[in-house]
Design goal:
- This is FHF complex subunit HOOK-interacting protein C-terminal domain-containing protein.
- InterPro entries: ARM-type_fold, FHIP, FHIP_C, FHIP_KELAA_motif.
- Belongs to the FHIP family.
- The chain is mostly helical and 738 residues long.
- It has 34 helices and no strands.
- The longest helix has 24 residues.
- The radius of gyration is 36 Å and the shape is elongated.
Amino acid sequence: MLSRLGALLQEAVGAREPSIDLLEAFVEHWKGITNYYIESTDENTPARKTDIPWRLKQMLDILVYEEKQQAAAGEAGPCLEYLLQHKILETLCALGKAEYPPGMRQQVLQFFSKILAQVQHPLLHYLNVHRPVQKLLRLGGTVPGSLTEKEEVQFTTVLCSKIQQDPALLTYILEGKETTGRKKAPREATASLREAASARDKDRPQSKAPDTGPCGAWASSAQLPAETQEPDGPIGESGLITSLVGLCKSKKGRVALKAQENLLLLVRVASQAAATCLVQSSPCCPAVVERLCQLYQSLPSALDPADIAAIEGISWRLPSAPSDEASFPGKEALAAFLGWFDYCDHLITEAHAVVSDALAKAVAEKLFVEILQPQLLHVSEQSVLTSTALLTVMLRQLRAPALLREAVAFLLGMDQQPAAPEDSPRTLCAHLIRHCDHLSDEISIATLRLFEELLQKPHEQIVRSLILCHLEGRAYVARGSPEPESYEDTLDLEEDPYFTDSFLDSGFQPSVKPPPAPATNPDGKTAVTEIVNSFLCLVPEEAKTSAFLEETGYDTYVHDAYGLFQECSSRVTPWGWPLAPPPLDPHEPERPFFEGPFLQVLFDRMSRILEQPYSLNLQVTSVLSRLALFPHPLIHEYLLDPYTSLAPGCRSLFSVLVRVIGDLMQRIQRVPQFPGKLLLVRRQLMGQVPGEQLDHQTFLQGVVVLEEFCKELAAIAFVKFAPHGPHLHLSKPPEGHV
């Protein structure tokens, strides 16, 4: 097409300069467009049925052809200078705004997109280009369902691509004339961008003006810094960012996805100055987070926490729940919110560090602090329940390190000092920990799920704040006490108030008699076989039922624990944890020990396992198992080593379990036909027999959970310190011992 046009022009003008004829043709086509508005009287004819689209295409072809014929690269040809000098883009923008003839805005958007994409000469630095570009951006992106959404998203695609190639363009497209009257900081933020652009413009050869009039001086003034121009709108006015965010709301999936990809392209700018400009001189962060908060606040207030926890597979590329999932009220609204949250997380992950930090802080401030925190602390149980479940599923989706850092600071605070038992809950973390022991079992379960999800995140402060800061110093270990001569000495049954003479006379005996003394490895650690047997032997034989059923053996737990421990170990490897606990100074006086509010609540809950609902017991033991998996020597010693000599008044996980076993043996005497009922309850829980209400059902379910939890702890201890190398040759041990 272009070569044929050039040949025809050559034949028509003979020896005349082809560039002059190109200019005449270009002017003729432009006059044809302007004459339409002078001569036409039909206001209803669509633009596509007039000669305007054809003339715009001819003008574009001429500009592209002229550029290819330019001898000196970088010079603006006469046609391009005519377009700039006569403010053709400004006029087209005004015609598009008027939407006359109908559909003119669509034609203008297409022309802008094509000229910016196909003309290689840098255009966006010119005032008479970036000003109409800004005006055109403000015409769309604000009303979902616009007829020009497709053309708008193509236009923004070209702009974002140009910015990625040359980040210095960002200041022209985002600000232009809008920086006048702004605070000094944003102007300073874009100074280096403009300096870079000015330096490049100095090196660019200046083109000569066409015969219609000089343009060199105008072109120079058009490239002055934007703040020298008169303002025509505030910085928060609809522009590139607002247009993109508006297009992200489109009901057309492809349009919304392309707009999201364009915004992602924009925040990936490699230039520090451009990223700073994006944060300080555009509504980027506020607009993205405002959309997130709007979607959150549109969620139904009575969402079922079980439905929230069950929804999966939501991503920003597929922001709708899988069709095979059960429908429930508010499902689409929940999927839309989680899809946009995933998009924010992806933006923060991919963006320049400056943009990433600013966006993460905006999410934390606007969503976490201003909206979620009041709901988490509300007196309404439904508000607490729903907000806790939503926060849990957000944590599950969260991947961006910057956003995780903000989420951890929001949930746990910045203070890592150990808490005292008498401290009142002043922080959000303290209130959430208290919710783990709430009068409402549903709130307790939801909050425990929140902490379990938090413990799986790759952030050291989580474990340090909740657990390690209270264990450091090993104040739970008795100073100067001799090693126990036997396993029974460690348990101190006769001194425990739960183990009365009547209880000892009731026939309680460990299911397998433990060895007379705990074996130790050369490094002084208790041998793993001793630890494993301690947990496996803890529940007496008359309270065990797993031997009567298949697929409930200890080896299943070993297999599961192995995978979970590998995952946990890879997550904490960068934190450089020690391999062994620090040695104790035998002359150091004992000091009071407090396990911390989190372990205190978990131990208190664990001590009531025989009287709590089954679902709550499962969640308590699940959190404790997550803690036990961490490969830190202090956590292993305190939670998994039964042979640790505890200081007076201290308790450990094993000592809590021993007390529960004592309570169990006393209660067994009051349950008629205990073995048969216990086996029936286990089969009910496994779905092998229909569920029916039994006497002492909560107690019997607690016994089943207790047996399984002891096997799970034994498996975790085994995979953490396998006797035949690091987690190799895991074979099935005899039921009840290793």
